[in-house]
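Example complex used in Figure S2.
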Amino acid sequence: MSAIDLNNLNIAYSSVQVVHGASLTVNEGESFALVGESGSGKSTILKAICGLNDEWTGEIKLYGEKVDPRNRADISRISQMVFQDPYGSLHPRKTVDTTLSEPLAIHGIKDNGDRVVEMLNAVGLDQRYRFRFPHQMSGGQRQRVAIARALMLKPKLLLLDEPTSALDVSVQAEILNLLKQLRKDQNLTFLLVTHDLPVVSFLCDRLAVMKKGKIVEIATRDQLAKGEFNDAYSQELYHASKHEHVA
Amino acid sequence: MSQKLLEIEDLRVTFPTHQGDVEVVKGISFDLGRERLAIVGESGSGKSMTGRSILKLIRSPGRVTANKFIFDGIDLNKQSERQMRKLRGARISMVMQDPKFSLNPVLTIKDQIAEALRTHQKLTRKELDEKVLHMLDQVRINDPARVAKLYPHEVSGGMGQRIMIAMMLIPEPDLLIADEPTSALDVSVQAQVLDLIDNLIQENGMGLILISHDLNLVANYADRVLIMNSGEIVEQCNASELHKATHPYTQGLLNAMPRIDETRDELPTLDRTQWAAT
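Predicted assembly (525 residues):
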């Protein structure tokens, strides 16, 4: 079964159309990347999928069921989002424990904090971080909390919006390893938005290249590794990433 | 490099805390000609503090000391705040990390860029407008006339950064300090912006200090590289020889990056305890 089906998805913000007829299928358990420049509509697609924006026409199906943007609770049990900026996406005056418990409270799940302990372990954070505030942690640790929060409701699909672009390379490596491990352990499906092709190569099976709101090409990781793109724009993107690599 | 643009010897930046003074830059020395120098390191390595201290932008209670601190024959140690203001922007300018916090939210793009120019030069309004539009065009903004009228919240992060670069390059300074100038940009645009900075530097014979955590980027856009870790320069090399770097910290950084034809199952991470003691 496919995890995500987008069929002729059009998204507009007031009068400006941002995404033009996007169609793609992400299989269950797959890790799929959306790449493209800023303003190409990749994050917009992510927001539409998780119900943060309901100004769209066309069809979005998650695990075979049509998404109804008015029913956010259902969507958020299936799919969760991790945002780019770990400094901006955590509430500064709430402890890690409160942040992680909130999704459970909203969905009326009774739990004695076991899930919080479990998720902290899963993302490789020591229990002593449980009652800390975001400002008492580093960027990498905060991103771990954001990932833990996304996993609290046991979603099957994780939407990742540039999860490592705000982090140092060595911390990025840790978070990428963590995401890869979590995907294996919990059998998650990833939809990753990024403009970093090497990250795609490490974490994803397939990618869609977007330009000005349109999907111009869908390629596999092998094609990416060899630079075998058909579309001129994908080629350009590939060369821009390729030429700035040292080793 | 016969003519030195910047000479720094034993630069230290300290901040007082309840636990005593913390030194974030621990006595570094380097020279800069009209060349491209990169300072690489992770967050907290002191690279941005080094950049800021050149402009004397470290606010009290932070302290900057140096045995030798000379920019183009001017002793920066002896400059008053008022004299520094004449240097900043006109002779040395700095591109900051985050356009969201570095642009004035209540000025239009045009007014903001014009302000950078007006502070240092007398120009008629028509000349100003022309220069601003030309600069916006140079940083590859598609519709300069439209964008010039926008406010910072109306442009994307990538555009904001290009606007800031336009603002910093328009007075044609001698030394440009670029603190993570492209970390908010797309790869394709990154190359364009760096090429642009590169062109301007070569045309005007400027010096560049490129502060970045991105080793790949640095390898392509700098002549020399200083690698910093916890306030010290751990290694210096030519950018072309970066892959031959020997220090374990540099190697750790190089290895931690995913490659475009990645085959490793897990990325090696830095063992921070290894040199924390040194």
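The radius of gyration of chain B is 19 Å. The longest helix of chain B spans residues 187-204.
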